[in-house]
Amino acid sequence: MSIKRNRSKGAGAVLLFVSIAVFIVYAYFLLGTEWSMLILQLTALAAVSILLMVLGWIGYTMLTAPKEEEKKG
User: Fold this and answer.
1) Tally of domains in the chain
2) Same structural domain for residues 18 and 38?
3) What is the pTM of this model?
């Protein structure tokens, strides 16, 4: 049990430090370089794409879900 716990703590530490490092690199490119407009455009594109993929997935799930009467019988 303690090996699993240590492994998950290690993975948590890696995720924490990677997210901090990515934030620092993102902030540097956003605020410290001439690439800031491109970074903002790519961020907006990624956010809209993720939102639309989730909405599409929900729509597909609703479209292909069995009807209530099919579930019972």
Assistant:
1) 2
2) no
3) 0.69
Structure tokens at 12: 């948590």
The domain in which residue 42 lies consists of 34-65
Residue ranges of the chain whose pLDDT lies below 70? 1, 70-73
Q: Kindly state whether residue 29 falls inside one of the protein's structural domains.
A: yes
Going from the C-alpha of 8 to that of each of 14, 18, 21, the distances in angstroms are: 10, 15, 20
Of 49, 50, 51, 29, which Cα lies nearest the Cα of 40?
29
Q: How far apart are CA 21 and CA 17, in angstroms?
A: 6
CA angle 35, 45, 27 (to 5 degrees): 40
Residue 65 per-residue DSSP state: S
Residue 71 within any structural domain of the chain: no
